[in-house]
Amino acid sequence: MKEHAVVISGGGPTGLMLAGELALAGVDVAIVERRQNQEIVGSRAGGLSARTLEVLDQRGVVDRFLAEGQIAQVTGFAVTRLDISDFPTRHNYGLALRQKHIERILAGWVGELPVAIYRGRELTGFAEDDTGVTIELSDGASLRGGYLVGCDGGRSLVRKMAGIEFPGWDATTSNILAEAEMEEEPPLGVHRTALGMHAFGREEYEIRDGKVIFASEGPVNVMVTEKNAGGTGEPTLGDLRQALIETCGTDYGIHSLRWISRFTDMSRQATAYRKGRIFLAGDAAHVHSPVGGQGLNTGVQDAVNLGWKLAQVVKGISPASLLDTYHAERHPVAARVLRTTMAQVALQRTDDRTEALRDIVLELLAMQEPRKKIAAEMSGLAIHYDLGEGHPLLGRRMPDLDLTTSDGPLRVYALLKNVQPVLLNLGAPGSLDNGPWSGRVQRVDAGYDGVWELPALGAVSAPTAALIRPDGYVAWVGEGTPDGLLEAMRTWFGQPDKETPKPG
After folding, report:
1. Burial 451-470 (b: 16+ CB within 10 A, else e)
2. Where are the alpha helices (DSSP H) in 39-113?
3. pTM, entire model
4. What distance in Å separates the CA atoms of residue 216 and residue 203, rounded to the nearest whole number?
5. Among 2, 171, 351, 393, which is most buried by a count of CB atoms within 10 Å?
6. pLDDT digit string (tens) for 449-484?
């Protein structure tokens, strides 16, 4: 039986990102993926948010995505675009890029790392014991893992078999998505009618001046709202024709279906992201309507929060209790995503009362403060982990500052490339000591003269030091004294070297 420190069920964006994080941290990780390759049939997520681009930047791979996607102000709330070009980040935009390309690029990166991928099979069962998890595969083989992470989507078998509840809200709307040929040219773009939203587009498109310009020929991508939300299973071409006729008065002579699927606004969230040695991430932990484009991004960021923590426990650096901070930090983030998504679905209704509400919301979002608050949330830039009282930077993402050092200029994110924590000292060189943690936490003496500005918050007072976790979030802020630094080191990066706990 093959053994790995961590086994991931599911090789979509969340599973791939987690595997990459663990491999960079030097952990033996394997993915079990039912597809033979990374190809996706159909349309899923369509882009990366500013916060996800920052995460990919700190690992040194963002340029691979930027080279293939289209940079645009794609952050939005319900029916309005929200400009984030004035936000204090190198990536003050979104990236339009279809999920099949996101997965292919992620898989290319993971392929350069020591990650075992068991393709063409899936997890069928598992049994947890005191030292690990035995995993049964569909080909009759077994694997052994110290930990198992379910990145296996909204219908997660890992979640079901672990007995983790998935409460939430049933669907109120249902949409059919498809790609097919049409005899007549439909009106490209997004449309609202009394029956709901529908849209027509093509695979190839350009974004010019914030507007999507589709190719003029080729198969058509269709999205249409169904009359009833109760549909289950795979829709048919007949279902699609009927929905088009009900909505548009014609089916445009649709034929030669390439693929078809259905999505709803069902919203659910796992009650626990961790149960012993079992974890959930991505859609296995939270599902909601795709409106607002937050699903894939939230999953990738789940992976970046969990990866370094699992690595430290596997290596015996930190006690297993560190793993509880994964649920504590990420569950509230997705709970909020569910709320903002449900609000957007409600605002898309087409009755007169919702139109009136939408007009008022649009008026509010045209004002600076509401725009900044909601845009920061929708782009992921407002994420804040509750690490207690203190400087506004505490629990927020470290800005990617241009530092000066004795070795020349340096970007903060360049320090995070290898999933290692950083003690950044901006005071007198040598005035802070990482002593017993020096083998584990890199200390950097640097200078920064500019204004400290955080998304949605604006300017904040300049700290003299920051302890940056491997996921880029700030675990401690120095304001002239080292008060609390040792405690923060111990909390996040284990006991000093001479008193290392046993592997978890």
Report:
1. ebebbbbeebeebbbbbbbb
2. 50-58, 62-66, 99-111
3. 0.92
4. 11
5. 393
6. 999 999 989 999 999 999 999 999 999 999 999 999
